[in-house]
Amino acid sequence: MKKIQRIYKTKDVSMLMVAATIIENAIRHRETLQQFRSVWTGDFFETLKTDIDDAVQKILGQDRAKDLRKATQYLYAHQQEILFELSLLKTQIHQDFKNQPDKKQELLTTLGFNQHYPKARKKNQEALIQLLFRFKSNLTPQWKTELLEKGYPETSLDKIFAYAEIIKEAEIQQEFLKGIRKDHSAETIQLYNDLYLRVISVANIAHKIFSDNKTIQEQFSFNKIYKTYHFNPTNPSDESEDEILPNS
After folding, report:
1. Are residues 46 and 24 in contact, defined by beta-carbon separation less than 8 angstroms?
2. CA 96, CA 158: separation in Å to the nearest integer?
3. What digits encode the pLDDT tens for the residues 40-82?
4. Are 87 and 125 in contact (CB under 8 A)?
5. DSSP-derived secondary structure letter, 247
6. Could you report the per-residue pLDDT of 206-236, keeping only the tens digit for each?
7. Could you tell me if 226 and 233 are in contact, meaning their C-beta atoms sit under 8 angstroms apart?
8. Alpha carbons 45 and 25: distance in angstroms, whole number
9. Distances from the Cα of 241 to the Cαs of 62, 202, 211, 217, in angstroms?
10. Helix or strand or coil: residue 50?
11. Distances (CA, A) of 52 to 11, 46, 160, 167
12. pLDDT band with cut points at 50, 70 and 90 for residue 247
């Protein structure tokens, strides 16, 4: 009996998280999509969303699946504002401690900026998650007081802490970053393949429908969303429509 192969090159959890994000985007633009595809009703997308959730539960268990999807999609939706807060803080540290270079470097290293920010600013979500955790763990009361005295708003620090807490609650660092890929049965792999094809079908059609709006169009690009989560996709091409076709 021929072994069933995955038709996608990502980890199972990664594929399902990207698929879930694409369907969330489809639900958000359902009214426009339905003008070109009458069968794409609310029930159609909700059924597909439920099937993806059930598949994630096979990997992580019911309790973790919902939190993981919520956390990854939260990062996808709020990545720009998170990066803005971190970038603003980094700039102020450079300015406030420019006459104390050793102290400046110590602070940037301690809070994770030197190690993780270069990749995080390029939308490497793994680096962003690591930076958030490092920041939250290492910002001592002494460092916090000094930053506040320099004029950095406490509300902005609280925002960064809140971002990190949302990820921590879903245990995303332990589960998603490991890129879990279990040895599933042929039946389960076939289920994942079928889900992938169903979502890619939606993505390809939506990609064409929104061909005059690049911003919305990118919300249906498997590779672009995957790069938001991982930065280095298996298939580096991200410019053509073919990128979101199943791997042959």
Report:
1. no
2. 20
3. 988 999 999 999 888 877 766 655 556 666 666 677 777 888 8
4. no
5. P
6. 999 999 999 999 999 999 888 776 534 343 3
7. yes
8. 10
9. 34, 13, 10, 10
10. helix
11. 14, 10, 30, 20
12. very low
Q: Which two tokens mark 85?
A: 């807060």
Which of the 8 DSSP states describes residue 13? Answer: H
| Calpha distance 119→15 (Å, rounded) | 22
- How far is 16 from 189, CA to CA, in rounded Å? 12
| Residue 40 near residue 26 (C-beta atoms within 8 A) | yes
Distance CA 132, CA 245 (A): 33
The phi and psi torsions of 85 (rounded to 5 degrees) equal -60, -45
The DSSP call for residue 8 is S
CB atoms within 10 A of CB 60: 20
- Tokens for 12, please give them: 């199972």
For 36, counting Cβ atoms within 10 Å of its Cβ (0-12 exposed, 13-18 middle, 19+ buried), the class is exposed
